[in-house]
Write a structure and sequence with these properties.
4 strands; single chain; Glutaredoxin; four-stranded mixed beta sheet; about 35% helix; 4 helices
Length: about 130
């Protein structure tokens, strides 16, 4: 798993540095959201606030978080701040999106930028209206 962690760091280092995270996706230091959210379809995005593709997704995730409130959980974890999550979720590159059904079972994984339509299609396939 050390190799996976190294790949995540290398991928993130290739991204241009950015100065501030999207407000809706900001996390308190030390706080790792519980994922998957019990009883709810969950879309988890693992990335870094300074990764360019991750930052491109930030406003999309903020929109989805508002639009799907109460119907699906949209969660972001910054793997630079919470590097233990790299091993927990077995990721090798960022951003990585993981979709969980309402029972908490992982049903889909995507690596790289994912647009809003793609995320909504996955949520719809999981029964989110």
């Amino acid at each position: 798993m050390a190799a996976a962690r190294l790949l995540v760091y290398l991928a993130a280092l290739l991204c241009l540095a950015a100065t501030s995270p999207a407000p809706a996706l900001a996390q308190k230091a030390g706080a790792v959201p519980k994922v998957p959210v019990q009883g709810m379809v969950t879309m988890l995005d693992l990335g870094a606030k300074s990764c360019v593709p991750c930052r491109m997704m930030a406003p999309i995730l903020a929109e989805l978080e508002k639009e799907y409130k109460g119907r699906a959980a949209i969660v972001f974890i910054d793997v630079w701040e919470h590097n233990d999550q790299v091993q927990r979720f077995g990721i090798s590159a960022i951003p990585t999106q993981i979709f969980f059904d309402a029972s908490g079972k992982e049903v889909k994984r995507h690596v790289g930028f994912m647009d809003k339509a793609g995320i909504e299609a996955e949520l719809k396939a999981l029964g989110v209206k």
